[in-house]
Amino acid sequence: HEQRKTNKALYLSDGIIMYRLSSLRPSSRSKTSLHPSFIPRRFAHSFDYDLLVIGGGSGGLATAQEAAKLTLKEDGSKSKKIAVLDFVKPSPLGTSWGLGGTCVNVGCIPKKLMHQAAILGHNIHDAPSYGWNLPETKPSHSWETMVKNIQDHVKSLNWGYKTALMSKHVEYINAYGSFVDRNTINAIGKNGKTRTLTADKILIAVGGRPKPLDVSGGEFCLSSDDLFSRKTPPGKTLVVGASYVALECAGFLKGIGNDVTVMARSIFLRGFDQQMAELIAKHMEDEGVKFLRPAVPTRVEKLEEKNEFGNQKLRVYWKSSNSTDETYQDFDTVLVAVGRKADTSKLGLENAGVPYRMESDGKIEVQGEKTGVENIYALGDVIKGNLELTPVAIRAGRLLARRLFGGSDEQMDYSTVPTTVFTPQEYGACGMTEEEALKKYGEDGIEVYHSNYTPLEWTVPHRGDNSCYVKAIYERQKEEKLLGIHILGPNAGEILQGFGVAIKAGATRKHVEQTVGIHPTTAEELVVMDVTKRSGKDPKKTGC
Description:
Elements: H1 2-6, E1 10-13, E2 16-19, E3 49-54, H2 58-70, E4 82-85, H3 101-106, H4 108-126, H5 143-167, E5 171-173, E6 175-181, E7 184-189, E8 194-204, E9 208-210, H6 224-227, E10 237-240, H7 244-255, E11 260-263, H8 274-286, E12 290-292, E13 295-306, E14 312-320, E15 326-331, E16 333-336, E17 340-342, H9 349-352, E18 376-378, H10 390-405, E19 419-421, E20 427-431, H11 434-441, E21 446-453, H12 456-459, E22 468-475, E23 482-488, H13 492-504, H14 509-513, H15 525-528
Parallel strand pairs: 3-4, 3-8, 4-5, 8-18, 10-11, 10-16, 11-12
Antiparallel strand pairs: 1-2, 6-7, 7-8, 9-17, 13-14, 14-15, 19-20, 20-23, 21-22, 22-23
Helix pairs in contact: 2-10, 4-5, 4-7
């Protein structure tokens, strides 16, 4: 009542009638100041920003741009102040990059382009079978040319993100942010200057960084943060790890002509279908990749001897899991891909009261992308239980922006997300693995249709007879719902995207059977399979 008498003027903000807060503000004679976070949240805020995003990767940029689009006025001006705070800390070997996050700079984009370089090498090898007369000298690959051209493309994407933010009236701040409290961020720029920023809502989208090799000499090893912009060819390479990053990198490095060994402690591609993981490893072995498994590195030494590219060689010692004997071998490059950790340790989350798994993977627990603090959100690779995939972060970010600024209530669905591992034989997967289906439904509750096949393009050069494989997992009861689909072969990602829609829509065995295949393609294998594992029949395909 007293507030109403003091403040006659009413104004509307976000659909809520507010009163001016003159009585809450100190007088000009007061030596104290009222921090914005003490203003009751039912009143209009006086923060610097309506939304401040910490992290300029795929999820953070998608959220900021969607929020900007939703809050743009008809005259083109902005009704909300939105900013993206992004700063890349160099890797232990000193590698850094521009705006866009892991995917654009040191992940999906350069990885897929290097995978393509390896595919082209295979195509050159196949070309004579199709009548192409190649020079008598064996074609050679230039690492330097490939890296330069890929990095030029990456830099164009960095610039594109900056211009996109500008066009949408989103402020880009190139500084490292950490929490002072739930509404206040301390931002340190490249020059060391500090700014204090306040925001009504804050999104944490800082992604993750590769875990280091925790042995003596581990600091001499590369990670995926360093590989894609490396100036000199990697040469004889040891890849430590069994993750998709490890196998993808090992695959394209071998494909462009390097001597490659993979050292793995146990299973490949943990969390993926294990039959498919073993098939990937077998195909890579057939292509000349060497495997040390089960084995773990014990130490790494830098030698005085240099390789042909002027880099000091590395001596790696390791032990087999079933032996106490230590073995060693010398390599030009050691690439470590033993997992990733959320980049949250220096965000000052404790100052804002945000709980996170500091001692393990650094991840934040959320419900609907909301942390334990009312105005602080998190998404992408920093949240527990999330699929660490770029399209997942983008989708989650756009939906979050629509809930915060567009009146939507739609939540992100993290189930049945299609994905592809870009190993030499690409592996596309969507839905349940066979292990997951067996655990949930039991052996009698599922039916697995499968088939080996040879892409038509491989038949003329006689490459990989029946080495590709596909399987579909169905619920055996009711309508035979499609639970999961897995394909190992060329262009797996391109093929699987459409089947991802089918699984999301609840496709059944009958739907798949009624679909006419496109001939002659590898995609048609998914709709013509008629051999089940239960039958015990040979799934190898003959004829076209």
